[in-house]
Specification:
- By secondary structure, the protein is mostly helical.
- The chain has one domain.
- It has 10 helices and no strands.
- Helix 4 runs parallel beside helix 6.
C-alpha cells in the first residue's frame, strides 16, 4: 500500500511515472494499454497528481496539507482551455482528484477557495466542449474516453455538465469497453 509519505516523496522528486504505476497497482485494475496512456509525457504529471490526490482523500477523513498542496498544484497546472494536460485521460484523472478533494472538504464543513471552484467549473466546461466538438475518433481517443468514463461517469457534477449519453455511446459502439477493465491485454478480434 502506498502511504501519504511515499506520495509526498514521489511528488517532491517528480517521479510521476512510478507514482502512477504504484497507485494503479494499489487496487485500481485497468489494462496496461490504459496505464500506458496515463504515463505518456503529455499526461503523466496531471495523472500522477490527480491519482495522488484521490489516494490522499481515500486514506484520510479530512483534508491534509498534502492533499491541499496537490489540489493547488493541479489548479496551477490548469491550462487556458480548462484541461490539466494535453491528454483527456490525464485531465480526467486530475479533475477526479479535485472533485474528491472538494467532496472531502465539504464533508468536514470546510470550503475551498473560489479559484479552485472556478477551475473545476472550467474543467467541466472543457469536457463538455470536447464532447460537443468530437470529430471521428481514433483508437487512442476511444481509450482516453474510456478513462474519462472510468474516472468521472459516477460524479453527478460531471454527468450534469457533459453529454454523458453521447460519450458512452461512442465507447460502447466502438465495441471495446471491456478493454478498460481487462488486466490482460485483449487479443485482437478475429476477422
Amino acid at each position: 500500500m502506498i502511504s501519504l509519505n511515499h506520495i509526498d516523496r514521489m511528488i517532491n522528486h517528480e517521479v510521476y511515472e512510478r507514482l502512477v504505476q504504484r497507485i494503479l497497482a494499489n487496487g485500481r485494475s485497468i489494462s496496461s494499454i490504459h496505464s500506458m496512456l496515463l504515463v505518456r509525457p503529455e499526461a503523466v504529471e496531471a495523472a500522477a497528481c490527480g491519482l495522488a490526490l484521490q489516494r490522499c482523500c481515500e486514506l484520510t477523513y479530512a483534508p491534509t496539507p498534502l492533499a491541499a498542496e496537490l489540489a493547488m498544484r493541479l489548479t496551477q497546472m490548469q491550462r487556458t482551455n480548462g484541461h490539466f494536460s494535453q491528454s483527456l485521460a490525464g485531465s480526467a484523472v486530475a479533475l477526479k482528484g479535485l472533485l474528491d478533494f472538494l467532496d472531502q472538504t465539504h464533508d468536514v464543513g470546510e470550503s475551498v477557495n473560489e479559484s479552485m471552484r472556478a477551475g473545476i467549473a472550467d474543467a467541466l466546461a472543457a469536457f463538455r466542449r470536447t464532447q460537443l466538438d468530437a470529430s471521428p475518433i481514433n483508437e487512442q481517443q476511444i481509450q482516453e474516453t474510456q478513462i474519462v468514463l472510468w474516472q468521472l461517469a459516477d460524479n453527478p457534477a460531471f454527468r450534469s455538465a457533459v453529454g454523458l449519453e453521447t460519450m458512452w455511446s461512442t465507447v460502447v459502439s466502438s465495441n471495446r469497453m471491456a478493454e478498460l477493465f481487462s488486466t490482460e491485454d485483449a487479443a485482437p478480434a478475429a476477422a
